[in-house]
Amino acid sequence: MTTYFTKDHEWIRVEGDTGVVGITPHAVDALGDIVFFESQPVGTSFSRGDAMAVVESVKAASDIYAPVSGEIIAFNEALTDAPETINAAPEGDGWMVKLRIADPAELGSLLDAAGYQATLG
Amino acid sequence: MSDAGPLLRTPLYDLHVASGGRMVPFAGYEMPVQFPPGIMAEHLHARSAAGLFDVSHMGQIILRPRSGNTADAALALERLVPVDVLGLGEGRQRYAFFTNEHGGILDDLMIANRGDHLLLVVNAACKAEDEAHLRASLSDSCEVEVLADRALLALQGPQAEAVLGRLDPKAAEMRFMDVADLVLAGIACVVSRSGYTGEDGFEISLPAVDVAVVAEALLADHRVLPIGLGARDSLRLEAGLCLYGADLDTGTTPVEAGLEWAMQKVRRTGGARAGGFPGADAILRQLEEGAARRRVGLRPEGRAPVRGGAALFAAVEGGAQIGVVTSGAFGPSIEGPVAMGYVETALSSPGSTVFAELRGKRVPVAVTPLPFVPNRYKR
């Protein structure tokens, strides 16, 4: 199991050909209190960089982008009623979407934890 | 705000940073949008205890009658606002707005009668234009003095009276919209019992050099937390209060905005001082006949906030746009999304359902009375 990061502050935890996607503590801190989460439906396919879910904080709406191309095979339905879980546990219970990864080679373009930390300055 | 110059700081900037405030540009100033508790917790704290807001970026302007008679300044100001200023008693304050020749709103403001002068509080983004407008229109009868060296605090919430009363017991004797001289932590302040959160509270005008002393004395009370612009916005939206630049602008009339209550009878058709302000023809006609669109409260179904700028439609599919959202957010006290906007008058009755365009879909939105949270002013 390996975790990769995007410059847009998503993380993807990869096991075999599936990946679980969420946002980083840095992103949660910048967004503030999250009050709404909505995923595209299970079965939707995405290219890398497409918006596949949206979160709204008290301040603004933010798209969650697909770190790699793939198809949504599940999303975190608990977040529909309790989006604040993303604030409380962004890397745990606040996970958002589970993807079937279309092309594992795309993972090579993502950052590792040290590389992501470096982008935060 | 068209000025792209360097951002200004209020005299409380250092205290905001020391308190963990997240600073953002707002109306030309670096202001705290939130403190470590976050917008949701700050909002709920102001509704349940007391919150301290720095509103020093707002403009404070004195109108001093050249004749020495404050009634002359009141009558002069009535040339710019559709409001009864002459009838405003000493030690009282009133909400008003500057209008343009089309009946649109140039800015909204507070006017206080301070005995020998009038004290105006105007929006930060409009203050330069307001000053020029006042000088151009009233210099014959009034000295216009911008109080650039004064700060402004707002203490808001059900515990505000108890907190301020510990510093000066006279605070408890004030009613909503009273203005009085109080001494807080040794500093002479001009205090009004008013605010913009829907809660009971006070606004405190004082010398900029002394504002940190008074702010720290208020924050030393365990019931008081510093509150940022984020919660200030959600509080005023839940209270159904207009934000200039969002819900009010030069293309919006007071009747469209539902501000008839601020235009007293004496300035209306048949009143002793009817008209005489910019746009009087259009505004007085709308007072008689109504306006084609109205400001309404909006409650989107579900949890998704509908933000300012969202288009409103009468039907879930098709049809022309019938309105627009002007303010929208998640209301922490309501525990759901709330918004305000303008709709065609035929659709403005509470109970109507309209549809807001949100990410390419139309979501049902109930038209509701304002405010969303009952006002708790101490009348």
TrEMBL record, chain A:
HAMAP family reported in the protein's UniProt record: GcvH
Described function: The glycine cleavage system catalyzes the degradation of glycine. The H protein shuttles the methylamine group of glycine from the P protein to the T protein.
Superkingdom of this protein's organism: Bacteria
Matches recorded under Pfam families: GCV_H (PF01597)
Cofactor(s) demanded: (R)-lipoate
Recorded family membership: Belongs to the GcvH family.
The protein, known as: Glycine cleavage system H protein
Gene3D superfamilies: 2.40.50.100
The protein's assembly and partners: The glycine cleavage system is composed of four proteins: P, T, L and H.
Residue ranges of domain Lipoyl-binding in the record: 18-100
UniProt cross-references to InterPro entries, sorted A to Z: 2-oxoA_DH_lipoyl-BS, Biotin_lipoyl, GCV_H, GCV_H/Fam206, GCV_H_sub, Single_hybrid_motif
In-chain residues carrying the UniProt-annotated modification N6-lipoyllysine: K59
Source organism: Tardibacter chloracetimidivorans
Keywords in alphabetical order: Lipoyl
GO biological process assignments: glycine decarboxylation via glycine cleavage system; protein lipoylation
Lineage, uppermost ranks: Bacteria, Pseudomonadati, Pseudomonadota, Alphaproteobacteria, Sphingomonadales
Transmembrane segments: none
Note accompanying the cofactor annotation: Binds 1 lipoyl cofactor covalently.
Transmembrane keyword on record: no
Gene Ontology CC annotations of this record: cytosol; glycine cleavage complex
